[in-house]
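Morning F.,

Quick status update on the modeling queue. The single chain you submitted on Monday has been processed. Sequence for confirmation:
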Amino acid sequence: MAQTTTRQPDAALLRRPGARPMLLAALIVTAVFVLSNSPTPLYVYWQRELGFSAGMLTVIFAAYMVGLLLTLTVAGQFADRFGRKSVLIPGLVLALVACSLFGVASSVLVLVIARFLTGVAVGVIVSAGMAAVVDLGGPARRRQASLAASVAMVFGAGLGPLLSGLFAQRMATPAPVIFAVEFVLLATALAIAIFLPLRRPPASQSADTAEARFSLHLPSVPKRNQRHLAYGIAVFAPGITATSFVLSLGPSLLSNLLNASSPLVAGGMACAMFLAATGVQFTVSRVPVRSILLLGSGATLAAMASLIIAVNAAVPAILILSALLAGIGQGLGQLGGLTLIGTHVPGNHRAEANAVLNIGGYIPAGLLSVATGYLINGIGLSAGATLFAAVLAVAAIAGGILVRRDLSPH
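C-alpha cells below.
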C-alpha cells in the first residue's frame, strides 16, 4: 500500500530541534538591521547640531548604499566559495566599529563613515547572513527559512528606530546610550556567528576539479534562475525604494511640512512601517509566490498615492498610512524574491543570488532618494516628494505587469 504524507505546519517545523540554529542565524540578521535604521530618528537632531541640508542628509544615507552595493558585488561570491562564516564574522566586526562611530559622531564625516561601514555590514548580512538562515533550515524548511530570514530583516529594521526614538525622546544626547545598547546586541550576534554549525556550500557540479580557480566577477546566477531574480527585483526594488525614502526623508517631512518634530514620532513611524512588513509576511506565508508579488506591487502603488495626498494636504496620519503601505510593499517583494531564491537557486549560488536581488533593489533606492533630496532643495519638499511618488508608482505598476504576465501562478 502506498504511504501518504501530510505537510507539516510551519509552527511544527520551527519547533523541531534542527530549527534552533536557523533561528539563531536569523537573530544575527535582526541585530545588524537594528543598527541599519537606528540613526533614523536622530537625523533631525544631527541636522540641528551639525547644520547640514536635506541634500547632505541623503548623501549620508547614500554612503550606506555605496558601502552596501560595493559589498554585495563580492560578499555573496566569497560566502558561496569559502563559507558563510568567512564573510559573516568580518562583517559583524565592522558593524561594531560603525556602532561605536555613531555613538561619538561629532561631524558629518564621521556620520558618513559610520553609514558606509553599516552598509558594508548589511551587504554581508543580506547575502551571507540570509543564505546561512536558509542553509541551516535544510531542505525541509526552504519556505520557512526564507520567511525567517525576511522577517528577521524587517523586524530588526523596525526595532532599531523604535528604540532610538524612545531614547531620543527622553535624553538631550541620546546617541551614546542608543549605540551602547546596540553594541551589546551586535557583540552577542558575533558570538553566535562564531559558534553556528555552518559548513561550506558544496562545490558547483559544473566545476571540472576541486581546484577550479576562483575569480571575482559581477554577481550573477545560473541562466535558468535569472527569471526568478527578475520577478523578485521587479517588486522588491520599488518597495525598498519607498521605505528608503521614508527612512531618509520621512523625519524631515514630519518636522518641516507636517509640524511633527518628535523623534519618537519619526522612530515610531519607521518602526510601524517595518512591523507592517513583518506581520504581512506571516499572513501570506502559505500564499503562492505570484500572488505575494502582485500584492507587493499593489501595496507600493497605494503607498505612493497616499504619499502624494499626505504631502499636498499636510496630513500626518496619511503619511503614516503611506509608510505602512510602503513597508507592506517591501516585505512582500522581499519575501517573494527570497522564496524564489530559496526554492529554485542551488545552495552554492544562494548567497550570490541574494546579492543580485539586493543590488537590484538598493541601486534605485539609493539613486532616487539622493536625487529627491537635492530636488527638494530646488523645488520644495511637497513638489519633490510628489514627483518621487509619481515615478515610483509607475515602477510599481510595471513590476506588477511583469509578474502577472510571465510568472506561473503555480
